[in-house]
Design a protein that fits this description.
CATH class of the largest domain: Alpha Beta
Structural class: alpha+beta
Strand order of the largest sheet: 1-5-4-2-3
Number of domains: 2
Number of strands: 15
CATH architecture of the largest domain: 2-Layer Sandwich
Low-confidence stretches: 47-52
CATH topology of the largest domain: Muramoyl-pentapeptide Carboxypeptidase, domain 2
Strand content: 15-25%
Mean pLDDT: 92
InterPro entries: Zn_M74/Hedgehog-like
Distance between the termini: 40 Å
Oligomer: single chain
Number of helices: 4
Helix content: 10-25%
Radius of gyration: 20 Å
Length: 291
């Protein structure tokens, strides 16, 4: 329970612990278990395509990328120990010529060094997304597939970057909206992670920053979409879908940032266009930004 509370964040709604290549899982109380008992990581049915094939003690860094369940093993008996999933990353060093396998990623602006601000350093690794694991819940309302970059539909596996604080922030925004009288059953993730290649030249690039937070896994463009029709809901009840509905989400973002300064970041409203029906950009860049 302590571990789930630790992973759950300020919202209590985050459902994944993400480990960099070579990083060990830190589970409170793992060293005080009775003799013969140990915490282990077991690959999920939707494990990553690199073949995370057998369980490993949680005291070791998993040698493979994938998605794992946490279990308690007592000799031959085993039972789930947590509802948290553990994700181990594919090292960025696997990227060759801008690709991992057949999936085109491109190169981050400061990949060869030179990023004075740590928020612009390239990620240590990426999550491998397969047809089998894409439905994994990262938090109460967000699935792994919500971070997939548009395009390359037929290419699998795909690779994304996700920073848990953005999951926590969006869940807090949802909780704030509910406090404000706007129940949220479903959000529509218009854009999650963007590969550097897509950010530079994919889709409509107007208004897209060269150092977009979407490339670093700590940004999402979302709409409240309880009826799951791919369109922002009429949050302010005026019978129209427009920028005023995005501003309701923006009010919740402002409230969350004032309560939790460590989650401060960027926000921007996008009015309905041909490509979407209005959305709000939210990120956790570490300083307040509005544009």
């Amino acid at each position: 329970e302590d571990f789930q509370e630790q992973v759950g964040g300020l919202s209590g709604a985050v459902k994944v612990e993400i480990l960099s290549p070579g990083e060990k899982l830190q589970v409170p109380g793992a060293d005080t278990l009775p003799e013969g008992a140990q915490i282990v990581l077991r690959p999920t049915d939707g494990a990553g395509g690199t073949g995370a094939a057998s369980e490993v003690p949680a005291s070791q860094a998993p040698g493979e990328s994938g998605i794992w369940n946490i279990a308690l093993r007592v000799r031959d008996a085993i039972r789930p120990a947590s509802t948290v999933s553990v994700i181990t990353l594919v090292p960025l060093s696997r990227k060759q010529g801008g690709r991992i396998g057949n999936y085109r990623i491109g190169n981050w602006p400061n990949e060869q060094g030179g990023a004075t601000n740590p928020i612009y350093r390239p990620p240590a690794g990426m999550i491998e997304v397969t047809q089998a694991n894409k439905e994994t819940w990262l938090s109460e309302h967000i699935q792994l597939k919500d971070f997939i970059t548009k395009g390359q539909e037929g290419v699998w596996p795909k690779y994304v970057v996700v920073q848990p604080p953005i999951l926590d922030k969006i869940e807090l925004v949802i909780q704030e909206l509910e406090t404000m009288g706007h129940p949220v059953k479903n959000i529509f993730a218009v854009s999650g992670f963007r590969t550097p290649a897509y950010n530079a030249g994919g889709g409509n690039t107007s208004g897209r920053g060269k150092l977009s937070r979407h490339m670093y896994g700590d940004a999402m463009d979302i709409a409240v979409d309880n009826d799951a029709n791919g369109i922002m809901d009429d949050l302010n009840g005026d019978g129209r879908i427009n920028l005023a509905d995005a501003r309701v989400i923006g009010q919740a973002v402002d409230r969350v940032e004032s309560k939790y300064p460590n989650l401060v970041g960027g926000m921007h409203y996008y009015p309905p266009t041909g490509g979407h029906q209005g959305m709000v950009h939210i990120d956790t860049r570490g300083y307040r930004a509005r544009w």
